[in-house]
Design goal:
five-stranded mixed sheet, two-stranded antiparallel ribbon, 9 strands
Length: 215
Amino acid sequence: GVTTNGMGMSFITSRAEQEGIICSGPLKGNQFTYALLDERAASKKTFSREEGLGKLAWRYFSGHGPATLRDFSWWSGLSLGDARLGLQGAEKKLKKEEWEGNTYYFDSRFSKEKEMRERVWLLPNYDEYTIGYWSKGALYLSGKNPLSFAGGYYHAIVKGGMVEGMWRRETKKDKVIIRTHLAQKLSSAENESFKKAVREYSLFLEKECESRNND
């Protein structure tokens, strides 16, 4: 007897997610699914408030670092006071560096090797790499923010940690065409990394992918 036409189903599933009843499930073909949270994440542990904040801070900075305290507060929804308390619980396992007046925390295993600087990633829109930070200025050191929804380019191309362009996909009957718009030309090593990213995306989709630069 519950009406689900229009936005009704979206409201119901959103509420069920907030209540901890359901969560995202595996893809079924091209369709997104939901799963029961108790089945998807069966193991449960109980922590004190301080322990919980510390573990949350460690998981954020080890997975999102380098990042600032304000980034953690913004991402988690915690007050700056609670975010600082969490950071204190995780700080012993983190390294930190000062840059332009801000302190950035990160996992001590964070790599600055040349291989990572030449790595190219195809990220989807709303990926945490581009939206998981309060301040996004450090993502665009090479110049202006190239992120734009103009022309249907929704997704980010990240090169050496910086957003260097956009991409979009066109799904055809027998293949997927990846159209790119880059701020700068890729080097030979970067181009090989880009091709690898396209191959990995092709394996994920289980469909041939062809890239075309629209610059």
